[in-house]
Amino acid sequence: MTISRREFNTFLLAGLASAALPANAASLAQGRDYTLIQPPQPGETSGKIEVLEFFSYGCSHCKDFNPLLTAWVAKLPRDVSFKRVPVSFGRAAWVNLARLYHGLRFSGDLARLDDAVFHAIHSERTNLYSSKAILEWSQQKGVNTKRLSDALDSFGINTQLARDEQLVKNYKVNSVPLLTVAGRYAVTGEAAKSLADLLPIADGLIAMARKGAQR
After folding, report:
1. Which residues of the chain have pLDDT under 50?
2. What is the pLDDT of residue 24?
3. C-alpha angle 68-69-72 in degrees, rounded to nearest 5
4. Distance, CA of 22 to CA of 137 (rounded, Å)
């Protein structure tokens, strides 16, 4: 779907209101609110319920979802871990955006510049699809470009990108943004009226995972 700024602001207000409501796992319906991940996938954080967000900086819906998700993640219970997985879907430009994401993690600038990357691409129409463009933009943002340049094509990031691609295959990801919970559930939100409506569903799935439910 394509949404206007006015519609997004409406969605944001609706999301803030819905976030105040308790999640009701019993009301969730398979096929409408979520699908089962088959086979279930193991998490990387022992003893915690793992939530993954599959996303790309190149995705406009991911941009709109990001501030809602960031606020939600800040309030997650201690028994929940959260990780983001950048996807490329075979697009060279999106591979470089995934490199940028991991490069900013490596340089310690991700928290400061995460929203700025989305804004640059979708609001300012900045080309961040090549290493040269990434480094030029990053320098303007005060990033240590020598450190970032070394990271972008490093063995560590290439290994991480391969892991990301394997996760995309294992979870059968075909669209973004996508939230998964405990390696068992993928949030679909077929009846969701806004991106914000996906978060209460995720809350309910976390509750289901905590009880060990598999419906």
Report:
1. 1-2, 5, 8-23
2. 62
3. 90
4. 42
Residue 56's domain spans which residues? 1-8+23-87+173-215
DSSP state of 30: B
* Position 186 in a domain: yes
Give the helix/strand (H/E) hosting 14.
Answer: helix 5-19
Quote the CA–CA distance of 24 and 169 in Å, as a whole number: 30
**Domain count of the chain?**
2
Task: Report the pLDDT value the prediction gives residue 191, as an integer from 0 to 100.
Answer: 86
18 occurs within a structural domain? no
Same domain, 48 and 68: yes
* pLDDT score at 22: 41
In the chain, the amino acid numbered 201 is I
The predicted structure's pLDDT at residue 214? 57
Q: Can you give the length of the chain in residues? A: 215
Residues 150, 129, 135: CA angle, nearest 5 degrees: 35
